[in-house]
Amino acid sequence: MKYQNKPYTFVELVELKVINLEESLNFYQEVVGFKVLEKQDNKALLTADGKTALLSIEQRPDFEPKQQKTTGLYHFALLLPTRADLGAVLKHFIENNIRVGAGDHLVSEALYLNDPDGNGIEIYSDRPDTEWKWNGEHVAMDTLQIDAQSILAEGASTKWTGLPEGTAMGHIHLHVADLAAAEKFYNALGFEVVTPYPGALFMATGKYHHHIGMNTWAGVGAPAAAENIVGLEAFTLVYPSKEVLNTAIENLKTIEAPLTEENGLFITKDPSQNKIKLIVK
């Protein structure tokens, strides 16, 4: 995936807290199409290609159900290699009576569903970036009705066997308490606004339509959920080089954002207490 590789900074691993590991594993394998990369008693790493972990799910005895009107995960978004792959997924959902939402965002076409704990999931394919419409620094995005029949027709000859090998973590979309504070923080991490939207902002590196989405739809000033509430534990940003990462670290120090280092892994939190791990691969 062009924008989920060097020279861009992108989201790779999303870590979730869940109530029931086995129920979640069944959902993420049978409905979404992940494969298990690694499994422990209370945690599993999930993959599309058998090598790269895209999702971590963990169960602990003290975890409690998801709360509404808090900051945290709005959805994580799985980017498929082709529109035909999206058609195969849509057919799979229809055949298995999986209820989904959908949206044509001009730059992409997307399906939406929730896991057993209410964590939001987007599965999408991008339109070619040569077709994206830019007005200065902002890319045109919208939420329109998808052409489901066209998508199904494109995937008619593609059999669904789970997430295809080229699937990537395309972006993450967060509930935040304050858009201005979030913009300042993610700008320090190296992201630029590419689309303002009512109650939301979309930010990216390298003119992608977005690597990070954020909104205040849970309420301006929404509190962070307690540590034992299911939902987002953390997500990982992959930087293209140590130099780019070091610039982000210095920017975080300048704005006095929280920053810790554990065995070479840098960890920070945005102003809405969403935890982020910063790495170079």
Automatic annotation (TrEMBL):
An example of a GO molecular function for this protein is: ferrous iron binding
Keyword set for this entry? Answer: Aromatic hydrocarbons catabolism, Dioxygenase, Iron, Metal-binding, Oxidoreductase
VOC domain residues are: 10-126
Q: Does the keyword Cytoplasm apply?
A: no
Judging by the UniProt lineage, the source's domain of life is Bacteria
Q: Which cofactor does it need?
A: Fe(2+)
Family, per entry = Belongs to the extradiol ring-cleavage dioxygenase family.
Q: What is this protein called?
A: VOC family protein
Organism of provenance: Psychrobacillus soli
